[in-house]
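One such given next:

>
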Amino acid sequence: MTTKKPIRVAVTGAAGNIGYALLFRIASGEMLGKDQPVILQLLEIPTEGAQKALKGVAMELEDCAFPLLADMVLTDDPKVAFKDANWNLLVGSKPRGPGMERADLLKDNGKIFIAQGQAIDAVAADDARVAVVGNPCNTNVMIAAAQAKRLPADRFTAMVRLDENRGRAQLAKKAGVSINEVSELFIYGNHSPTMFADFTHAKIGGKPAAEVIGDEAWLKNDYLPTVGKRGAAIIEARGLSSAASAANALIDHVRDLTTVGAIHSVAVASEGRYGFAEGIWAGMPVKTTAAGYEVITSYEMDDFAKSKIAITNDELIGERDTVKDLLG
């Protein structure tokens, strides 16, 4: 029997599709460890339907009889949801509606992430960490982090792990190998079709991926668009956006940020690295350390890679400029 103190995990949009695919896996120990109790602090919007759905999810969690699930808090108040939370998983965001411009979506979500960033900074645990999934996640994490007075910016990350997982899977499929054979495939830039899945440094079975695949045209013209537009392809096929794979990627994101030595793709404050503008948040390779994480800056980019990074950088600058009045 574990004697560890429970970790408090706040999840927003907890009754949504990603939340439903996520919560049972957190409660079973897949994210933080099979001996780590958790308290789930679940936030949903203050409508009768959403709160009722949240109660239903909580009933199912109870019925799973997870030994690690120490308690649950259900609320529509961010100050309650984030109170003393060690991990704050910001899954909920406003989806893009019919005829809605991206700029409007950025501003509408910006208001949500201002409020949540302020609440986390005010009431979350001293060791609080934040992972933003709700799109557009790079800009939403920038807005949330800008609200923080107490918590440092490096506690805030956004998820590009779904893109990394998609990219690794496509390389494994093309090469006819196990997913475990694919390494050093990192995502640079925005979680959007402009992001760059850097096949130029990826390895398959320890050898350069480009050498193993042996088809440069496929890598540039088929592989990159397939990874970049995979979310849209899933919506086209299922009629619903990625939920289980997004939840799985968030489990990976948090687990690897709590596993010293793990090397993976995370969206962090760019600080001008890899040619990204200062002040934007971009996917790049990080190594988890005992103190947090450090960006791996040793990869040398060729002209093709630099051109792809420039495109996603321009998009991130545009998003930042759209919401600059929300950054304080």
In short: The mean pLDDT is 96. The two ends are 47 Å apart (CA to CA). The chain has eleven helices and 14 strands.
